[in-house]
Amino acid sequence: MFVCKACLRKGLSTVASESRLLLRPVQSQAATALSSRRLASSSATVVPKLPLAPADETADLAEQRRTEKLKYAVKKHLTCLKDPLKIGEHVQRTLEKGNFEEALLLVRTASRDTKLTVSWNHLIDYEMKKQHLHAAIKLYNEMKKRAQLPDSRTFTIIFRGCAQSDHPRLAVSEAVRIYNTMVANGRVSPSTIHLNAVLEVCARAGDLDSMFTILQTANNGTRKPDGRTYTIVLNALRHKPDHANRLELDEVATQAEIDLSISRAKIIWEDVMARWNSGQILIDEALVCAMGRLLAKGDHKDKKSILDLLETTLKVPRFDLTGESSTTGQSQTQLKPSKANNHSLTVPTPGNNTLSLVMQHLAVTKKTSLAPRYWHHFTTVYGVEPDKDNYISYIKVLMKGRASTKTAEAILSMDDDMLQPLIYRFGFSTCIHDELNRHAFANACLIFDLMIAKSRHPDPLAMRLFLQSARGNVRYIYEQNKDDPRAGRLAVGKQICTALERMWQPFRMLMNSFNFSGKPQRKNSLWGLSENERDEAASTARRMIAAMDVVVNEELVEDPELLKTLKARRVLLNKLVERYVETLEIPEPKGKRITKKDGRTDSIFPLVL
Where is the composition biased (Low complexity) (predicted)? Predict the structure, then answer.
């Protein structure tokens, strides 16, 4: 009846107390209650506590319950899912929800009596996208052990996942091993898609030996090379010198790698042109540009042949051949002219990739005067819509050619989402170096007005370059006023004051975005909390103060009201800079007075805010 000693002791004590009450005189009700409470308290203190279950047993129990729950869910789903296609769709939806264990258990259970190649492919693809290379290969091996035969899609998923793996060396060994098994087995013969995927794995890892070994397995049947095949190989050869640089090889060894890559590429290109002439493959823009960018790494002769390559394959005219037909250029790298050029359908249309290649080639070969002609030809004849990279390449060529007018036109034609501080800096730098153009400062004003209209907060460095263009582009002013030097100096002062007037309100807006601790008041401020950006803003203020000093001290302005305004603004700028320095408690470093060629001095002080 009693299950423990404590309960037995309590029961016996109760019986004894009742018998004593019957034999002795009745005690008072208070004494009886007190005795009962004492008995209750004494019996309660001696009850032992039950031991808790160990933590490992609790975890095992929870895992067992979870497993049982998964099994129940899988069993319930399989009662309704009989078609392999429906099972594959359900597995895909389950993986999209992140329930990999449930999907795996369902596929394993259903694989006992159903062919579920598509479902296994979903599992392998999921693990590959999660960068679980080992787990994906294990699933592939388990798939075969369960008599689930891989199909062509299975190998495509594996090779594509290897190409995107974060461990390229390991991916190469696995991809090459599986590919060689496919070639030797013959049940699923590798196709061109598989060939290209494995080549891409080798190229990404920089393993050219394995890449060329795989390339030798190409044939004229199911593994017939196409344009994508040669594009992968040429890009791998182009990036091979970059792998050599990462190994910290000297210049001689790096140049040897470049020469070897270009010599290999020329041999491959002969095969490309032969196949194109015979109609076996179709070339595209990516393939041509891959060869062109590899030639750009070579010597002067290789660089010079890029335009000839584009003419031969893409029918891009040769504007550099003065007095000659644009279609009579001969190859500089023994590139055979194509008979397929007579068929317009086989000639790809140049696009953004080709435009960037041409602009970069013109910048390297210093044929900057041809850039506007090619730009106009691509955008009008070929209908290319320039992207951000195209504009940057074009502006860089114009900057080398000191063509400020064309630069301003290009920047004004850009979309708002392409405009960034770097674009404005390029534009003002071009205006600074275009000293012989009397419209250089006017072009800088156009760019500056666009920057103010499109930017919430102007770039301090770009503003400083704009002010420099006003102070530097004065050669034509002095040439126009040779007979009257005073008039020339006043014209220079007027130009500097024009720049300062344009800068005043935008710069005040920029400085108002910072509080007195040197940090922006708005969390979404353009400049964030970068110390370098605050330093750029302070340096711009110093340049404005220096320009005001030049105008006032050298008497470049005769208008008394304008002089009064400049002096007042100088005081405000000076107090603002001093306030920043004092707030941060950083001593102001000593500045240097830079002497100009004309004897003027410019007080440029480095400042850290």
Answer: 325-334
Q: How many CB atoms lie within 10 A of CB 477?
A: 18
Q: Alpha-carbon distance 337 to 183, whole Å?
A: 36
Residue written as token pair 């076996």? 280
**Residue 595 belongs to what H/E stretch?**
strand 592-595
Pick the closest to residue 450 from 476, 414, 477 (CA basis): 414
Q: Rounded to an integer, what distance in angstroms lies between the CA atom of residue 385 and that of residue 275?
A: 31
| Structure-block tokens of residue 206 | 């920089």
Rounded to an integer, what distance in angstroms lies between the CA atom of residue 111 and that of residue 143? 9
519-538 per-residue burial string, b: 16 or more CB within 10 A, e: under 16: ebeeeebebeeeeebbbbbb
- Helices and strands in the chain, H and E counts: 27, 2
- Spell out the long-range contacts of 390-395 with Cβ–Cβ below 8 A and sequence spacing 24 or more: 390/352, 390/355, 390/356, 390/359, 391/418, 391/423, 392/422, 392/423, 392/426, 393/355, 393/356, 393/359, 393/360, 393/363, 394/359, 395/423, 395/426, 395/427, 395/430
CA atoms of 291 and 133, how far apart (whole Å): 33
Tokens representing 102 are 């449930």
Q: Look at residue 505 and tell me whether its pLDDT is greater than 80.
A: yes
Q: Give the integer Cα–Cα distance in Å for 329 and 350.
A: 18
Angle at 566 between CA 563 and CA 567, to 5 degrees: 85
Tell me the mean pLDDT in the region 593-608: 38
Cα–Cα distance list, 242 to 51, 174, 204, 235, 274 (Å): 66, 24, 12, 11, 30
| 8 Å CB contact between 186 and 218 | no
Gyration radius of the chain's alpha carbons? 40
CB 69 within 8 A of CB 102: no
Exposure class string for 539-561: b at 16+ Cβ within 10 A, else e:
bbbbbbbbbbbbbbeeebbeeee
- Does this model's pTM top 0.85? no
Adjacent-strand bridge partners of 514: 520
Pull the structure tokens for residue 202. 């080798």
Structure tokens at 210: 């394995």
Question: Backbone phi, then psi, for 592, in 5-degree steps?
Answer: -120, 140
Q: Is the pLDDT of residue 113 over 90?
A: no
pLDDT one-digit tens code per residue, 128-187:
999 999 999 999 999 999 999 999 999 999 999 999 999 888 999 999 999 999 998 878
Tokens (6 digits) for 281: 């493959």
What rounded mean pLDDT belongs to the chain? 80
What CA–CA distance (Å, rounded) separates 524 from 410? Answer: 29
Query: How many other C-beta atoms can be found within 10 angstroms of the C-beta atom of residue 168?
Result: 18
Q: What is the pLDDT of residues 475-492, one digit of tens each?
A: 888 888 888 888 888 999
The token pair at 486 is 């005073």
Task: Look up residue 168 and give its two tokens.
Answer: 């390229």
In angstroms, how far is the first alpha carbon of the chain from the final one? 87
DSSP helix/strand/coil, 415: coil
pLDDT at position 535, please?
Answer: 77
